[in-house]
Amino acid sequence: MNQSQKNLPLSFAGIIGQNKAKKLLRRAVAQNRLTHAFLFKGPMGVGKKTLARTFAAALNCQKQEGQEPCGQCPSCRKFLAGSHPDFIVIEPEGAAIKINQVRELKKALVFPPFAAKIRVVLLCDIHTMRREAANSLLKTLEEPPSQTMLILTADEAGDILPTILSRCQTVPFAPLPQAEVAKILSREADLDPESAATLAAMGEGSLGRARLLLAKDLLGLRREIIDHLLRLEPDTLATIQTISELAESTARLKEDLGELLELLITWIHDLLLFSHGAPGSIINHDLYPGFPAACRRWSGIQLLERLRLLDTARKQLARNCNPTAVCEVLFFGLL
Fold it and tell me: What would be the CATH architecture of the domain defined by 217-334?
């Protein structure tokens, strides 16, 4: 069981977006109308875990001067430090929450809270939970121990057992405004506005996904590949050597290779939009200056063919074909 992350906002007002969720939870604190289990459901990386931590802090704030946690009392300071003994966070081990994690939780819940008025258990990404683990959790969801609340988080597209859904009050979460995501990325990573806007658009309103793309530096490799595609001439010795080297380095991405192909697909989509006079819908803002040259190099029919090649490569990787060979064939086809 992990403690909550440190240095995250400890106020409803400090959390970006999610006005509907914040209003519901603030009202629950103010009116003391609490259910025993909540399901925070929405896209990844939009603040579900941060809001769960803030909610738990507000429920246990010792000053209780309003709907916000004060941030100063002993309880709030423990939440800020990520060391509150009655805020239990369970995250997937590997790809899923496993039954042994649920069993350990049930043993811990036999005992009363150490200090909190309401012990809060945060179970993250329960759409990953295996069926046996979910079934083991059902009894606890139906009849949690006194002074205990469970908060479950799940991605919008994830499958959740109906028996779990029926035992929780669902709190919906929405994608974040892309302009706000771009501002945060610019501030955190000192990015130029175009790169920040590109990451925000690719994250589709998920700050977590945008941060992940930034950490992996896939945008830089995407740009390098596109620069080569726009510069190289087919059927020359230098091109053959460059494409072979590029395929080898790209194949080393392994599990991130599929993500890179998705980025290239968004670029081709942007070129098609640009060629049809709809630049307002583009995603790759940082590559926009090169769009005219790319559209002069390839016709609309050729761009559609390149989309087909990228889709084929994606399917081949899913069938565990040799990634270097897949990339080599793809890059030669994209020229």
Answer: Up-down Bundle (1.20)
Type of residue found at 17: G
- Are the CB atoms for 124 and 49 separated by under 8 Å? yes
Q: What is the pTM of this model?
A: 0.78
Quickly state the pLDDT bin for 160 (edges 50, 70, 90).
Answer: confident
Q: How far apart are CA 93 and CA 125, in angstroms?
A: 11
**Per residue in 5-21, pLDDT tens?**
445 667 888 888 899 99
Helix, coil or strand: residue 37: strand
pLDDT at 276 over 50: yes
Mean pLDDT rounded to a whole number for the chain: 89
CA distances from 17 to 68, 122, 173 (A): 16, 21, 9
Answer whether residue 240 shows pLDDT above 50.
yes
As a whole number of angstroms, the distance between CA 273 and CA 293 comes to: 14
Letter string b/e over residues 83-119, b meaning 16 or more CB atoms within 10 A of that residue's CB: ebebbbbbebeeeebbbebbeebeeebeeebeebeeb
pLDDT of residue 157: 63
Max distance between CA atoms of the chain, in angstroms, equals 74
DSSP code string of 125-180? -GGG--HHHHHHHHHHHHSPPTTEEEEEEE-TTS---HHHHTTSEEEE--PPPHHH
Phi and psi at residue 39, to the nearest 5°:
-120, 110
- CATH, domain range 19-172: 3.40.50.300
Residue (of 198, 224, 220, 223) closest to 209 by Cα position: 198
Provide the terminal-to-terminal Cα distance of the chain, rounded to the nearest Å. 50
Residue 188 backbone phi and psi in degrees, to 5: -75, -40
Domain boundaries defined on the chain: 19-172, 177-216, 217-334
- Which residue type occupies 135? N
Q: What letter represents residue 38's amino acid?
A: F
Helix (H/G/I), strand (E/B), else coil: 2: strand
